[in-house]
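Researcher: Here's the sequence for the chain we discussed earlier.
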Amino acid sequence: MTRRHLLHLATAFPLQAAKDDYPRRIPNYEQPLFHLHSQFKTPVKIVSIEYLRKGKTGFVRSVSADGAIGLVRTKEIEDFIPILLHRIIPAFTGKDARDLETLIDDVYVKHYKLAGQPFWSPAAAVEHSILDMLGRTAGKSVAELMGGVRRREIPVYLSGSIRETTAEEEVDVYVRGIQETGAKAVKFKIGGRMTRNVDAYPGRTRKLVELGRKRLGGGVVLYADANGTYDSRAGIEVGRMLQDLDFHFFEEPCPWEEVSETKKVADALEMNVAGGEQDSSLWKFHDMIERRVMDIMQPDMNYCGGLIRASRIARMAARAGMTVVPHNTQTDAAACKMIQFAAATRNIGPYMEFPFRGKQKREGWYTPHFEIRNGVVQVPRTPGLGVEFDPDYVRSLEKVTG
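Model: Thanks. This is the structure I predict for it:
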């Protein structure tokens, strides 16, 4: 090729033309859901975001230029503070909070090599605090910002089961729990948690599920969570036992990253298989839904990156005719996130997860206390996430800067 030919090709295919031929495409699962600009007439500038702490209890606080404050109790981000302070908070500070759906995507694009729970959990905490701030600015609950309140009370299933007890002791906990709360569903932990087919002790799983069904009776919905104990062969065997006992779903039968193993279990069983609590990739959720790896999606409001991303997962699931039952381990002030999500999401399951092993001490630093009565938890009617913090307690919090 001569120099003249090379110059001719360069002028025939300019770089700008190539850019115009390939416009930026937003995947379906990233399309905006809540259109926040239409809910606020003027910008809501974020002037500061802080991480606050008292002992082992952490909070993120966002403040707008108009003085609105969003404050949220965080979940398990103590090991990820440098990512929060140095990568995530700067990406949101100074921005218009109405752009939150875009900002949550932009922070990923900027720091995609960090993606995973250590990145998305602190990102979720920032998103939660901004949503709380936006709700207080508009005088609306977060569920209203997310498209509207579909339900005012959330039926729950009792969870928090452990493996350090005997089968008999664990069944006793939930027999009492049903009596105390009026709940109509329970989830038992089976297997040994990522133990490659090894039970907590020999025979415990069979004894637990058989005794649980016998003592709780046919009027209580039962679920089982293996926390990735089994390979597909053992998972199918255990799943068939659960089917025979009329359990309604089998959660994480196989290690969460071993997607093909989970799909084998789901394909072999008639009962529903659930999973997704460890996952944070929207593309992976999209793929698992497309291939029907499982039947019920269980994003965690923190691990997956927040309410916006969880709602996108719910939208994908709805298009495939699937339900969403978010993973939830929080019952104190942080439970508000799951409650707002369940209040607004069309395709949630019949019961949401709520840990319970007996009545807990009522803390004085926040209201309301999310208690189970007649099997349900009430959705707050106040703005934002619906939690009010004691001002003296808030003043006692330490600002973490590094």
